Structure formats: C-alpha cells, structure tokens
Fold this protein.
Amino acid sequence: MQWFLTGIRGNSDDLKSLGYVALTVDSLGPRNSTGECGQFFVGQEVDAYAALAYLSQQPFVDPSRVAVLGNSMGGYSALLAVQRGALEKKFDRKFRAAIAYYPSCQGFSAIMTVPTMILIGDADDWTPAEACRKMVAQPRTDGAKIDLVIYPGAYHGFDFPQVHPGIRVLGHGLEYDRHAATDAWDKVSTFLATNLARSP
C-alpha cells in the first residue's frame, strides 16, 4: 500500500513544518511483513518505546516532551502504548501525549496515562467510531483526558489525499475527506502545542 507510506511520510513533513522533530517508525519492514491489518500483533507499541528511547538520546530533543501518533493500526498501538497498567509501566521513559487517527478502540479501559486525542469518521467500517464512543463513555475515576472527535460521513484514511477517489481494501472503504483532514490537522496542531508546551 504505497499510498499509506506516502501519507505517513506526509504526516512527518507536516510535523516538521510546525517545528517538531518527527521520527517515522517502520514496524513491518524489519519483520519482513507486508501488512498485519486487523491482527494487531506486530509490536508497534514496543517499537514506539524504542523510538522514545532513541529520541531521548538526541541532543536536540527534550525527552520530557515527546508524543506518539499513529494511523489505523498505528493508532491502536499509540493507545496501547499509553493505556495505564499495560505496556507503559514497563518503561522508565514516558510519552507526554498521544494522538490516534481512526484506531480500533475495542478492549481499551479508557484510562490513559497522558492526554489523548482520537480522530475518527462515523462512516468508518473498518474501525467503527461507536467502539471509541463506548470506550470514552466508560466510567472512570482517574486517567488523563481523552478528546474524541468524530467526523460525519468520513471514512477510514480520511486524512490521506492519496485515497481520492475512494478505494476498497480488504472489503473496507477508504476515502480522503478534505474538510475532516483539515479540521483534524488543526486540532492536532493545537493539541500538540498545548500538551508539549514547556513546563513553567
């Protein structure tokens, strides 16, 4: 899926244009995998912590101000990386924030260790928004804030111009939505500026 790789690189370029350091992690290539869609076992969340450790050693990175961002399977892994009591407790270094574009929200407790934003379309038939609604609605007494943004009429992959016109992959619809993509990027920019700000 060359369109996906192109879109991910575009995300990194967009983050760079805002003045952030962006590291794109390839979890599939080193594992000789062409895709794990719908399986969620490739270890992306562990790779995210390896990336955090690497970035923390760079002199131009503040290790206390690193966010994790992922799309689809990567979004699921971003949530898994910051869910309390799961993987995060195994690592000393922590993320400061998390952003998940159209993740699968099935099975999450909604108790996140850092501010988290989920962006998803209500027409997504691959990772339905309803599961995210139910996740966020779960009763909880602690955990960081979760911002859930659901775009009417938007499909999986709504932020990738490469899927216009829409396509079907493994029986699911993917389609670029300019309005949703633009609004999501504005929200991501604000979210990062707020949550990665230097401490007073």
